[in-house]
Amino acid sequence: MAAVKHPFVLVICGPTASGKSNTALEIALQQDGEIVSADSMQIYRGMDIGTAKVTPKEQALIRHHLIDCCEPGESFSVARFKELATAAIRDIQARGKLAIVCGGTGQYIRALVQGITYVEIPADLNLRATLNQRAREEGLNSLFRELSEVDPVAAQTIKPQDQKRIVRALEIYHQTGRPKTDHVAESLLQGPEFNFIVYCLNHQRAVLYDKINQRVQTMIDQGLVEEVRQLMASTAGTAATTAWQAIGYKEIIAYLQGQKGLQEAVSDIAQATRRYAKRQLTWFRKMPDVHWIEDLSPDQAACLILDELKKQAIF
After folding, report:
1. Which CATH architecture best describes the domain 8-117+189-311?
2. Tens-place pLDDT, residues 102-123
């Protein structure tokens, strides 16, 4: 078998509006690369403006993988992402091209870089309903105390008011007889399949927040309201799917349903996006061996990354 021309995978991550897509695109153009999207919402067809999806023109310049691979009503797990992303990376490398993973979904990036092998534990809706009923009757603190007893490690990483994650952790324990922590530890045993080099883009908070605010207004100007209106019509008006819970979509749905005014919806989108950016940064700061790039434009970031990799004789 011929040696792989690029035996490593470049990862470009960071919070929303940090310039990831343009940085990855510039590197791909210069180094004959293809991009594997690590964005949990860009997988959905028709959700283009609200997810800041790369344009058809950009996709024509550089091949992108894991974009537009699901309908808005479909579920999509981290395990499924890792499976498809791994297959895409193998394919890119087999054709002698540079694989670039680009996105801001921390769980997706972590799954690849740390080589997490997920064992799917299907949802038990009856058990989940029982646990949620207990939370209503006994109080969520009762469930959190139980979680602290059966899985103290998981309890340290879950906020006492996070009912969804508390219930899921207890659901796993009652289904399998083993704490979620044990399943996570087993998932890490295999390790990553590829050699990853990870760069995280970031900006000073005020600068990043200004970029986010500008992006939200640009989405409105580009027609986000009409995009959501059309998607609602094509999915029988449902707002219950995972895709419809995405930032930018749930707020516009509330506007279209008369629950709030447009300016309030726009303000809510910007606020929710800023909060999401903070969570993204928390994810990436916990990851080891991340090279941080601060306060650079996409062109500048691409030049810096290429220069560093050339100095290391990687290119």
Report:
1. 3-Layer(aba) Sandwich (3.40)
2. 999 999 999 999 888 766 677 8
